[in-house]
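Course assignment 3, question 2. Fill in each field.
Student: A.L.
Task: Predict the tertiary structure for the chain below.
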Amino acid sequence: AYCHGEGGFCIGFRTQDLTSANPEMFSLVRCVYEKSAQVQLIDDLLSVTISALKNAGSVSPDSPAITEFSAKLLSLALKIKHPAFSEEAEWRLVSKHVDIWDSSVRFREGRSTLVPHLLLVLSKPDESLKLAEILIGPTPYRQLSLQSVVGFVARLECPLINLSNVPYRSW
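Answer field:
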């Protein structure tokens, strides 16, 4: 669980619920940690792009090959993660690309700027997305955090609540 201050929570969902909820809007992507696999993905993208540019004849910043390269590079960047984090075996819920000017883009306060974000609907209109797990991150108040989460989920269907084994450090 990524958190700052004095604690945080990781919320887990069932994979099949996420993959079937709204496939037009987002996809579930497995992170790639292995250096050689990352290099291969980048090489493949560059090869396809170079071939497309050679076949196009003339190249401009708005040519289809450049536009496609940009979109695929962004998609690829979302998959790549440093090998030091491989133990996480992370999957990411990735939305389709939405232009910053699109009316669906919302903004929230960040530390020094406004941060654009999307409101993702994770379940079908007639269904609710069920929690699979809540992991309580490192905190100086382990039992209090556990009690508050148990009280919160009493109204929900969440079969598993766990405390992180990572020791709390305030430094």
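Instructor remarks: The chain has a mean pLDDT of 85. Residues 128 and 135 are 20 Å apart (CA to CA).
Grade: pending
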